[in-house]
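It would be a great kindness if you could assist me with a short task in structural biology. A protein sequence and the C-alpha cells that stand for its backbone fold form the material at issue. I should value your view on which stretches of the chain appear to form regular backbone elements. The record follows directly beneath this note.
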Amino acid sequence: MTPPAVILSKPQMGENVGAAARAMKNFGLKELVLIAPKMEWPNDRAQMLASGSGDILEATQVYPSAAEALAPYQLVLATTARDRDVLKEIHTPEAAMRRLRAAARDGARTAILFGGERAGLDNDEMSLADAVITIPTADFWSLNLGQAVLLLAYEWLKSADTTPAVRTRSTVAVPASRQELVGLFEHLEKELDAAEFLFPPAKRETMVRNIRAMIMRSRLSDQEVRTIRGMIVALVRNKYRGKK
C-alpha cells in the first residue's frame, strides 16, 4: 500500500521541514508536499536537519494553494490542537492511522495535512479535510512542526507493527543438548553431595529430580550451560581457597 503523504502548509523554517523529512524516513513515509512555503525552497537548513533523508526533500512537491496540493488525494486528515467551527470527526493519532491504513489498503491515496508554525491551518484549509487529528498533550498544547510529524509518522508505522510487547535480546541461542544438560546435572549434583546439600539420603532422589526439572524448565542454551558450570567451578575453588 502507499503510505500517506505529509503536507505542510506555509512552513516558515527550513529546519522544521528537514526535521519532518527525517521523521518520515524513520517511520516509512515517503511523500512530502509543501503549500506556499514562507522560506526559500530548496532550503539549506532543511538539508542540514534532514540527516539521511535528502531523497525525500529532493522529491518534495510545492504548490501555491491547498486546493491544488490536496487535489490527488481521496482521504485527507488535518492536524489541529484547537476547537474549530467546522463540524468534523476528531481522531486520536492511533485511530487516525488505522483509518488511513484501511483506506490505503483499498487503494486510496491519503494525506496528513499540517499547518504552519505561526497559526496552524486556516478554516479554508480545514474545510478541505475529511476529519481532524488532535494529539493529546498535558498542560501545553503547542507542538513543534517536526515533533508533530514525528508523532504521527510513528503512529503510522506502529499501526502495522507486529513486534511483541516484551522480548529478549534477538541474538540466536543454540539450545543445550541432552549431553550438555546431563553433564551439568552430574557436575552440580556432585558438588551438592560434597556440600551435604542433598540430605537426608532418603530424600536425595526426590531433590535431584526437582532440581533437574527446575533446570529443564529454564530451556538453557549451550552457552548458559557452560556459564553455570564455570560458576560452580569458581564457587568450589574459592571455598577451598578460603579454608587454606
